[in-house]
Amino acid sequence: MPVRKAGKLPRPAYSASYALEYGEATLEVHQDAFTAGHRVLVVDDVLATGGTAEATLDLVERAGGTVAGFTVLLELGFLGGRERLAPRLVHALLSV
CATH classification of 4-95, choosing from 3.40.309.10, 3.40.47.10, 3.40.50.2020, 3.40.640.10? Predict the structure, then answer.
């Protein structure tokens, strides 16, 4: 299921806002994306400060899903995203 910037999804959606270094952003997921009990693996390209990841994980849970795991291709460890997501487990293919 896609998690997109605000206003990009065609059906009713849950939204979550989060802080950026330069302002605020909002993500959305369809309200009917998951049913109770759906186990969801969230996959993202980059984990930096963790704002986008935290908003995404919260949206999955609000939409009824259960986060089974969180995986990123690249983790920028020096920005502290993993700590922001604790106690959730983070799997990164590459960490710098």
Answer: 3.40.50.2020
